[in-house]
Amino acid sequence: MLDVKFIRQNADLVKTSLKNRGASIGLDPLMEKDHERRTLIQKAEELKAARNQFSMKIAKAKGQGGDLEQEKAEMRRISDEIKDLDTRIRDVETAMETMAMEIPNIPHESVPVGSDPNDNQVVRSWGEKPHFDFTPRDHWEVGENLGILDFKRAAKITGARFTVSWGLGSRLERALINFMLDVHTGEHGCTEVWTPFMTNRDSMTATGQLPKFEEELFRTDDFFLVPTAEVPVTNLYRDETLAEEDLPIKLVAYTPCFRREAGSYGKDTRGLIRQHQFNKVELVRFAHPERSFTDLEELTSEAEAILKKLGLHYRVVVLCTGDLGFSSAKTYDLEVWMPAQGVFREISSCSNFVDFQSRRGQIRFKPKQGKKTELCHTLNGSGLAVGRTVAAILENYQQADGTVRVPEALRPYMGVDLIGPMR
After folding, report:
1. Beta-carbon count within 10 A of 30 CB
2. DSSP 358-376
3. Angle at 53 between CA 48 and CA 59, to 5 degrees
4. What is the reported pTM?
């Protein structure tokens, strides 16, 4: 969240940010509450000064034996009024915090201004589109024909937008998870961490999923199923102070992810692109504020490395202000080529949240020189979304006879070079 003091001192900047994001929320209600709070604080301070004066007067007069009942009664009245004002101040501050929670992060100056995904900008691309001497099939058709993807039985077990993987389809999913974890820990210096797959409300609030996106989340009575490993991994250091020399902290985690995908009905409903449950390997960094945008470039390149090793054609897109996520200051999307659909599909989002999440979660670091603590910057990115990677492999490596070649980097994990029909 944004600091209320920052909002007050930079109201024009925040209003411009909201306009560029296409946000419907305004600042006036928050600023009115802020004015009310400062007025109440000033009145409370004046009354506390008056109470001190009465206290000194009473103490001085005690030795003179005068009648002080009137002064004591007035001091009690002032104390009661101060108590009431303190309660009102707390109520106003609670209301202000609730309002501030609804204000999105300010886009970095390098983020292009735009209203929707059409205004996103391609930064670079890698590889080439594969050429087929036949009409390539959609990944769900390839998977169903091979017997490795089963959407009908998944719907029978649970409902729409779930998948059962069989045989080499299941092994492909597991191979990708292990491959990604091995690359990120072995080559990129990340520490692997295994976290709970459910979190509490405080954790969801710290990373920005709550209160804004509650309708997108699955929950039990007391906990939320994680929509991404970003939530539990970022909250590992909630309410903690790190050492400056330990930054950046680079973590990687596998989790299943659970999302309602509210509002997406009729879009990408077939196949593995928009599932209610899917696997993901997530990269999370805790960075020094002075170099967090350098960290963003590094983190993005680490996610790209997976696509390069798999030989998948992709492009890097910087999101415009109107397409930027609620908590993000800058985001790169990695989009992989899907030949059957003839489009690029997002397979990873890599974001720098600056101090937006760490202010909510009170994640700080202690500078070496003994200065007071500062807020860390937090970053994350998919490294990668596993289901979408499966889809990309099935489409890009399919052959005319319906089989699928296994990317060379995955063959040690798969134990086969070719995915053929289930027997």
Report:
1. 24
2. HHHHT-EEE-TT-PPPEEP
3. 125
4. 0.93
